[in-house]
Specification:
This protein is of the alpha/beta class. It has 10 helices and 22 strands. A hairpin with a 5-residue loop joins strand 8 and strand 9.
Length: 423
C-alpha cells in the first residue's frame, strides 16, 4: 500500500469537515443519528448510521452520504449540512463508516469495480435496500454524494448501480475506475497526480464495464473540484467530465457556462452533467452552501425528482424573448441581439447561450463577452448591460465571419431558461 498517499488523504480530512457546510448547527428537531446493524450483506464490515427526520416524507427519498479518508459516518453527519437539509425537505440520510485501518473506501480492487463484485459497494447497497424496505423509501429517488474518498466512491456507485441511483454529487474525486489496482494497494499515484489521462470513450467504457450489458437510464452527475487540489489533482476533474458526458452520449463542449458565485465556474452538459470548478481552492474545499446546491441538483428541495428532458415552453410561457437581426455580406455579418425580460421580476446578471450556425466564427462583440467563438456560444453581460428590468430589454451585438451560411443563431437560453425567439 502507498502509505504516503493514504496519509496525505487522511491529513486533508480534518479540513474537509467544512466542505459542504455553511454554518452547521444542530437540527432543531428531536431526530437523532442511529446506528443500524444486521442490514444485509456486508463483506467489508462497514458500519451504518441512519438519520431519519421527525417530519419525514410519506415515501422519502434516500441519500447515501459517503465520508472522506480518515473520517467516519458520524463525523460526516456532524460536519455537513445534509441532516439539517433532511429536516427541511423530509428525506433520509445514510452515513456509512469504513472500519479498515486507512478509513478509506475501497475504490481500487477488482471486486469493488464491478456490480455485486464484493467489498464496500455491496455493503453500501445493502444499506440503501434496508432503508427502502424498512422506511418505505422511494426507489425512484435514491442519490449518492461524498467527499474525497467518498467522492471516488460516489462515481463507483454510479457506475456499478446506474439502475439504483437517480443522481450523484462528487466533491473532489476521480473518475470511476481511475484508482484501479491489482496488487491489493488502496492507492494509485498516477491517478491521484492527475497523469492518468484517457479519451472520453475510454473513460466511458470503464464506467460501462462495471455493469456489462446494461442499456437503461444513466444517473445525472454533479462534479466539484478545486484548481489547486494537491491530493487528487485538478486534471481529474476534466477526466470525470469526459467520463460522464461520454456515458450520457454527450459532447464535451458545455451547453452553458456561468459563475454561481465568485471564483466558481459552472459548466453544464445538457441536463445530465454539471461541473463546478473552484478557482484557487485546494483539496479542502471552502464552505458556501455546496450541500444545498447538491440537494437542489438532485431535486430534493422540491420533494419531486427533477426533469430529465429539455423541453421548449409553449408560446407565452417563457420569461424571456430574444430577437436576432442579421446584416450579412459576402464573407461576414453583424448581428444585433435584443434580450427582453418578459417576466415580472428584474434580472441582475445574466448569461445567454445560443447555437451559432456552422461555419460562423465571432471576431468581436459589444455589450457582452462571448466564448467560445463558434458552436454553442455563451454571451455574458458586462457592467452596463447586467440589469434587465421587468418588461424591459437590452441590446448587444457581434461581428462574425461565415463560409456561405449567414443565418441567424438559434436555441436561446437566458440563465438556463429557454427563451422565445422573436423576429
Amino acid at each position: 500500500m502507498k502509505r504516503t498517499g493514504i496519509k496525505a488523504l487522511c491529513a486533508a480530512a480534518s479540513t474537509l469537515l467544512g466542505l459542504l457546510a455553511l454554518t452547521v448547527v444542530p437540527p432543531a428537531a428531536a431526530a437523532t443519528l442511529t446506528e443500524v446493524t444486521g442490514f444485509g450483506a456486508n463483506p467489508s464490515n462497514l458500519r451504518m448510521h441512519l438519520y431519519v427526520p421527525d417530519r419525514v416524507a410519506p415515501k422519502p427519498a434516500v441519500l447515501l452520504a459517503v465520508h472522506y479518508c480518515g473520517g467516519s459516518g458520524t463525523a460526516f453527519h456532524s460536519g455537513t449540512e445534509f441532516a439539517r437539509l433532511a429536516d427541511q425537505y423530509g428525506f433520509a440520510v445514510i452515513y456509512p463508516t469504513v472500519t479498515r485501518d486507512s478509513k478509506c473506501f475501497d475504490v481500487s480492487s477488482p471486486q469493488a469495480l464491478r456490480r455485486d463484485g464484493g467489498s464496500d459497494p455491496v455493503g453500501l447497497m445493502s444499506m440503501v435496500n434496508y432503508v427502502l424496505q424498512r422506511h418505505n423509501g422511494d426507489s425512484s429517488r435514491v442519490f449518492v454524494t461524498g467527499a474525497s474518498s467518498g467522492a471516488m466512491m460516489t462515481n463507483v456507485m454510479l457506475a456499478n448501480y446506474p439502475d439504483v441511483f437517480n443522481a450523484g454529487a462528487a466533491f473532489a474525486g476521480v473518475p470511476a475506475g481511475c484508482f484501479a489496482t491489482t496488487n491489493g494497494s488502496e492507492w494509485n499515484s498516477e491517478c491521484a497526480n492527475g497523469t492518468l489521462l484517457r479519451t472520453p470513450q475510454q473513460w466511458g467504457d470503464i464506467a460501462r464495464s462495471a455493469y456489462p450489458g446494461y442499456t437503461g437510464k444513466r444517473p445525472r452527475v454533479q462534479l466539484w473540484h478545486g484548481t489547486q487540489d494537491d491530493i487528487l489533482r485538478y486534471p481529474n476533474f476534466g477526466e470525470e467530465i469526459d467520463q460522464w458526458t461520454n456515458v450520457h452520449g454527450l459532447p464535451t463542449t458545455p451547453t452553458s457556462t456561468d459563475s454561481p458565485q465568485a471564483n466558481w465556474t459552472r459548466t453544464r452538459y445538457s441536463d445530465k452533467v454539471e461541473a463546478i470548478s473552484l478557482q484557487g481552492t485546494g483539496h479542502s474545499l471552502p464552505a458556501g452552501g455546496m450541500a444545498l446546491r447538491a440537494i437542489q441538483f438532485f431535486g430534493l428541495d422540491t420533494g419531486q425528482p427533477p426533469t430529465t428532458t429539455t423541453t421548449t415552453p409553449p408560446p407565452g410561457s417563457s420569461t424571456c424573448a430574444v430577437g436576432y437581426a442579421v446584416n450579412p455580406w459576402n464573407t461576414g455579418l453583424t448581428a444585433q441581439i435584443t434580450i427582453a425580460n418578459t417576466g415580472s421580476t428584474a434580472i441582475d446578471g445574466w448569461t445567454l447561450d445560443f447555437a451559432l450556425p456552422g461555419g460562423q466564427r465571432i471576431t468581436n462583440g459589444w455589450g457582452a463577452t462571448y466564448a467560445p467563438d463558434s458552436g454553442t456560444v455563451t454571451a455574458r453581460n458586462v457592467d452596463y448591460t447586467a440589469r434587465i428590468a421587468a418588461g424591459s430589454s437590452v441590446q448587444i451585438g457581434l461581428q462574425a465571419t461565415h463560409n456561405g451560411n449567414p443565418g441567424a443563431a438559434t436555441s436561446f437560453r437566458l440563465n438556463g431558461t429557454t427563451c422565445t425567439a422573436t423576429p
